[in-house]
Amino acid sequence: MNFWEWYDRNFLAAKQHDVTIYELDWLVLRLTSLDKLDLRLRSPNISQKITPETLTNLDQLWQKRLSDRIPVQYLSGSVTWRDLELQVSPAVLIPRPETELIIDIVADFVSNNGQDKIYENGIWADLGTGSGAIAIALTKHFPQAQIHAVDFSKAALEIAQINADNNDQKIYFHHGSWFEPLAKQNLQGKIMGIVSNPPYIPSIEVLNLQPEVTNHEPHLALDGGDDGLEAIRELVNTAPKYLISDGFWIVELMAGQAEIVRSLLQANGNYTNIQIHQDYAEIARFVSAQTN
Ligand SMILES: C[S@@+](CC[C@H](N)C(=O)[O-])C[C@H]1O[C@@H](n2cnc3c(N)ncnc32)[C@H](O)[C@@H]1O
Q1: How much helix, strand and coil, in percent to the nearest 5, is found in the chain?
Q2: Residue-wise pLDDT tens digits, 13-57
Q3: Atom 19, ligand 1: which residue's CA is nearest?
Q4: Superfamily of domain 82-291
Q5: Span from the CA of 214 to the centroid of ligand 1 (angstroms)
Q6: CA 22 – ligand 1 centroid, Å
Q7: Residue 201 DSSP class
Q8: Residues in the chain with pLDDT < 70?
Q9: Rounded to whole angstroms, how far apart are CA atoms 222 and 205?
Q10: In what order do the strands lie in the sheet with 123-127?
Q11: Which residues line ligand 1 (CB under 6 A)?
């Protein structure tokens, strides 16, 4: 079978399996030397670019996508997130496009609030770093900052370290639960900003997401306890001990949680300037605040 016969057959198979055809293109572009123009123009010289071995490999992976519902990012082992090339494995959540915005919100905060404190030269923490996406992007954006990244999964931290090395960024990685590693580093009262995309899906819902997520992404990265807010409560309650006065706090959350998190921050009494930020789909996706 030549490449185009294979492609056309699997283009149809994607539709039958309710998988978007963009994923077929995505995998082809990731794993071969073809470019978008080759696909769009149905370039006839493709046989020189796709060896029979490449086609066999592509086919084996794509069949796993269709039958086992494995996300293409795990099949290729990589993803582009902002301007970063990141390795991913089933040990880490696949970083989502909407999470990219957290970096822009932090960058806006820093550029609008640098009068009295030089936020970009201070200590920051990314709690629940996963692939390291947020921590690496922050380090790239604020090269003078010292970024600490924490995760409870050792396997995730190994991937995050590889990603930091591959992107030439120095990050202080720590294994442990939320603030516990920061306590060991004596960082109480010293942190300029805490950024987190914690697990926030209620336990019962984790079991009923798309099979790509429920069956393949780590539940430690998804499961936020009975009401989804277990980790967020810990982040609200403990962060003030670690942040400087006027420190920046931001978390990602799911649709329907923003107002609850605003109330938690208000009730805590240590926060001011509480703001809700929308994502590209206009879902209230992040809540930020500053410590008193
Ligand atoms: C939603 S994922 C976010 C991953 C990454 N920051 C991102 O945005 O793509 C949540 C992360 O929190 C980590 N996590 C879960 N419980 C934790 C805990 N008690 N302490 C630290 N990290 C935890 C998970 O292992 C996972 O990597």
Answers
A1: 50, 20, 35
A2: 999 999 998 999 999 999 999 999 999 888 877 877 899 999 999
A3: 177
A4: Vaccinia Virus protein VP39 (3.40.50.150)
A5: 16
A6: 28
A7: B
A8: 116
A9: 10
A10: 172-175, 146-151, 123-127, 191-196, 243-252, 284-291, 271-278
A11: 93, 95, 99, 128-131, 133-134, 150-153, 156, 177-178, 197-199, 220-221
Alpha helices in 167-270 (DSSP H): 180-184, 203-206, 211-214, 219-222, 230-242, 258-268
Q: What's the confidence (pLDDT) of residue 117?
A: 73
Q: What is the pLDDT of residues 80-110, one digit of tens each?
A: 999 999 999 999 999 999 999 999 999 999 9
DSSP three-state, residue 194: strand
**pLDDT (0 to 100) of residue 16:** 93
* CA-angle at 97, arms to 15 and 260, nearest 5°: 110
Residue nearest to atom 17 of ligand 1 (CA): 152
Quote the ligand 1 centre to 178 CA distance (angstroms).
9
- How much distance in Å is there from the Cα of 219 to the middle of ligand 1? 10
Of residues 132, 195, 202, the one with CA closest to residue 160: 132
